[in-house]
């Protein structure tokens, strides 16, 4: 009694309908609006934008709703959407020196021009469940003050002025675009940073943590962490000059790492860099540490064989959309290859059993 | 779906993919890097094949999709629907009527003819990957034609098991030059790769395309004293009685009962339509 594996099409449609029903949950409970997700689950929205590499809070909120809160699924929706968008052009590089900071801290200097600004951070909260939030109607209010008028220069610029930190050379090279060109190894730093900034937060975090625990330790200080908005400018050919087309929220981390020096060069600190869309400081710090670990060759360090030093390993496995797709594809039917294996194992076993039988007969 | 371009991808992207395909056809078996796009289905689920199909499909094409040889497996259904929606091409289950066939893990039993295109979905395009995980190394090995490691692996199989213990994704050498992964087709299908149709291989996640022009020489690796053997279960199809088609084993009860049926559903159905009957076909015919 062979049951033909027909009806795949119908099964798929029914599964989709059931999924839609599950997504909505209990209809007696009010439906989530995109504005609620955007405003109250902002850090989820941020992560979906950063790893989806598309800056659009409303679309990210929609993706989260559609994905039932599965953030990797939501990131996937964003990525699939962004490939269909026309490429109008590229903005000018954003200037994070001009960032309007909600948060700006340095772990290397007690005070500094621009000041330490804690901003809306979890850092010093006690992680106690706040049961008041379970009740409705709270409307918290925070104290406000005038924005500080002075500029907020990068911390590394102070070290740079003294020659204490390795310099980053500016180039006019057009960076490669990882969404338009296939990866080729060995790669360069700008390519690595592009991959890392949209890499999986958990993966990058784990790798960064491994460097802290001694797998290519590079002894990082958070030289500076800043979160805020920067204007995005674009050169309009018809106008012949750049105009501001909007602003984006970014998180930037510059790490100050162990010094390197040689007979010819006096010791200097080195740096790692993390830049992520939205408020994503865990990711930005982790990215800076991994960036620093990947720079071993350029900075004349030894390859210790640590995972975080291995460019091909890190870059080809940090993308969660690639990873989850390939991981989950093993759910697809594999009868044909399994059948081939089944035949082979049966054949090998029967030959082995025949051999054992002949040996026993000989004894 | 009028918001999307014909066959989903924009024309610039299709041009980029077509260039990679042409390069692949010019250097048979060579893996051409291409800037694979995110598709609305997951990586690992045929995005490479889908991008290649999208780049070669024309409005007059007749499209067929198989997975494990069958037209009605869930992912084949999903991919076929995708192109029905985005390209509005005619679709078919008949191998002989299709102009473009996208496949996962099988080559149809009915020989393909000139003018047909067979598009393979490829998970890991690098035949040396499980011997050497680094792309930097394997590319070097291909450029130097340094395939000793693969022969050592096959030799070790023989030393350990008495025969080459690779039953699918069995490596081939193309036109005496590149060692190529035929995608996870059973080795039973390997000899079919010398065919009249164009064969295109797309690996989306791994960003590679490779190709075989019609009538390309494709040799499965082996040794003189251990020649390659295209094996399959030593049974006939229980539905159509075919003795030379690749078979799926279907478990029919919990008493060890099983039956063997053609994995190529179109082949099996056309044989039954032509009056062929297998051992268990009685109730099916009724």
From TrEMBL, chain A:
Superkingdom of source: Bacteria
UniProt organism field: Tritonibacter multivorans
Keyword Repressor: no
EC number: 2.7.8.37
Keywords from the named record: Coiled coil, Transferase
Pfam families: PhnI (PF05861)
Keyword field contains Ubl conjugation: no
Coiled coil: 335-362
Molecular function as annotated in GO: alpha-D-ribose 1-methylphosphonate 5-triphosphate synthase activity
Name of the protein this chain belongs to: Alpha-D-ribose 1-methylphosphonate 5-triphosphate synthase subunit PhnI
One annotated GO biological process: organic phosphonate metabolic process
UniProtKB/TrEMBL annotation, chain B:
GO molecular function: 4 iron, 4 sulfur cluster binding; alpha-D-ribose 1-methylphosphonate 5-phosphate C-P-lyase activity; metal ion binding
Keyword S-adenosyl-L-methionine: yes
Domain of life of the native organism: Bacteria
EC identifiers of the protein: 4.7.1.1
Alphabetized InterPro entries for the sequence: PhnJ (IPR010306)
Keywords per UniProt: 4Fe-4S, Iron, Iron-sulfur, Lyase, Metal-binding, S-adenosyl-L-methionine
Catalytic activity line of the entry: alpha-D-ribose 1-methylphosphonate 5-phosphate + AH2 + S-adenosyl-L-methionine = alpha-D-ribose 1,2-cyclic phosphate 5-phosphate + methane + 5'-deoxyadenosine + L-methionine + A + H(+)
Pfam families listed in its UniProt record: PhnJ (PF06007)
Membrane-crossing segments per the record: none
Keyword field contains 4Fe-4S: yes
GO biological-process terms attached to the record: organic phosphonate catabolic process
Protein function: Catalyzes the breakage of the C-P bond in alpha-D-ribose 1-methylphosphonate 5-phosphate (PRPn) forming alpha-D-ribose.
Family membership noted in the UniProt record: Belongs to the PhnJ family.
Protein name, UniProt field: Alpha-D-ribose 1-methylphosphonate 5-phosphate C-P lyase
Taxonomic lineage of the native organism: Bacteria, Pseudomonadati, Pseudomonadota, Alphaproteobacteria, Rhodobacterales
């Amino acid at each position: 009694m062979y049951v033909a594996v027909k009806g795949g099409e119908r099964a798929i449609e029914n599964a989709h309908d059931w999924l839609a029903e599950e997504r909505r949950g209990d209809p007696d409970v009010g439906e989530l609006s995109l504005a609620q997700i955007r405003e109250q689950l902002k850090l989820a929205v941020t992560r979906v934008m950063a790893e989806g590499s598309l800056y659009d809070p409303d679309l990210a909120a929609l993706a989260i709703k559609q994905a039932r809160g599965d953030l990797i699924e939501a990131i996937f929706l964003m990525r699939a959407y962004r490939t269909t968008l026309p490429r109008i052009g590229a903005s000018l590089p954003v200037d994070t020196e001009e960032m309007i900071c909600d948060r700006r801290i340095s772990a290397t200097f007690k005070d500094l021009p621009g000041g330490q600004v804690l901003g809306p951070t979890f850092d010093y909260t006690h992680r106690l469940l706040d049961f008041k939030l379970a009740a409705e109607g709270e409307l918290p209010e925070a104290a406000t003050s005038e924005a500080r008028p002075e500029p907020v220069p990068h911390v590394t610029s102070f070290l740079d002025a003294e020659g204490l930190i390795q310099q980053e050379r500016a180039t006019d090279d057009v960076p490669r675009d990882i969404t338009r060109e296939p990866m080729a190894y060995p790669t360069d730093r700008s390519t690595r940073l592009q991959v890392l900034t949209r890499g999986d937060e958990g993966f990058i975090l784990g790798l960064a943590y491994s460097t802290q625990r001694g797998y290519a330790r590079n002894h990082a200080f958070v030289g500076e962490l800043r979160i805020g908005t920067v204007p995005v400018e674009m050169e309009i050919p018809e106008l012949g000059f750049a105009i501001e087309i909007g602003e984006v929220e970014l998180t930037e981390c510059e790490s100050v790492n162990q010094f390197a020096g040689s007979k010819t060069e006096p010791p200097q600190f080195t740096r790692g860099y993390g830049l992520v869309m939205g408020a994503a400081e865990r990711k930005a710090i982790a990215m800076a540490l991994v960036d620093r670990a990947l720079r071993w060759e350029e900075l004349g360090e030894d390859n210790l064989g640590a995972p975080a030093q291995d460019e091909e390993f890190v870059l080809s496995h940090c993308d969660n959309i690639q990873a989850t797709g390939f991981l989950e594809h093993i759910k697809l039917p594999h009868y044909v290859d399994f059948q081939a294996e089944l035949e082979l194992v049966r054949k090998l076993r029967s030959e082995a059993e025949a051999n054992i039988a002949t040996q026993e007969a000989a004894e | 779906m009028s918001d999307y371009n014909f066959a989903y991808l924009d024309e610039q992207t299709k041009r980029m993919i077509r260039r990679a395909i042409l390069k692949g056809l010019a250097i048979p078996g060579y893996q051409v890097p291409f800037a694979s796009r995110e598709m609305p289905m997951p990586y690992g689920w045929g995005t490479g094949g889908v991008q290649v199909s999208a780049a070669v499909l024309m409005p007059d094409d007749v499209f067929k999709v198989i997975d494990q040889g069958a037209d009605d497996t869930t992912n084949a259904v999903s991919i076929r629907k995708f192109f029905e929606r985005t390209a509005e091409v005619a679709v078919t289950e008949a191998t002989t009527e299709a102009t473009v066939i996208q496949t996962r893990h099988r080559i149809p039993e009915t020989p393909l003819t000139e003018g047909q295109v067979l598009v393979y979905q490829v998970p890991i395009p690098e035949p040396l990957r499980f011997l050497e995980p680094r792309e930097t190394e394997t590319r070097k090995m291909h450029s130097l034609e340094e395939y000793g490691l693969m022969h050592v692996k096959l030799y070790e199989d023989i030393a350990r098991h008495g025969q080459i213990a690779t039953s699918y994704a069995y490596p081939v050498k193309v036109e005496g030059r590149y060692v190529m992964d035929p995608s996870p087709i059973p080795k039973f299908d390997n000899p079919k790769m010398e065919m009249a149709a164009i064969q295109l291989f797309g690996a989306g996640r791994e960003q590679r395309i490779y190709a075989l022009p019609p009538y390309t020489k494709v040799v499965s690796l082996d040794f003189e004293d251990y020649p390659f053997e295209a094996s399959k279960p030593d049974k006939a199809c229980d539905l159509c009685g075919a003795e030379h088609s690749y078979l799926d084993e279907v478990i029919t009860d919990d008493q060890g009962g099983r039956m063997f049926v053609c994995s190529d559903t179109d082949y099996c159905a056309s044989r039954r339509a032509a009056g062929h009957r297998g051992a268990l076909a009685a109730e099916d015919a009724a």
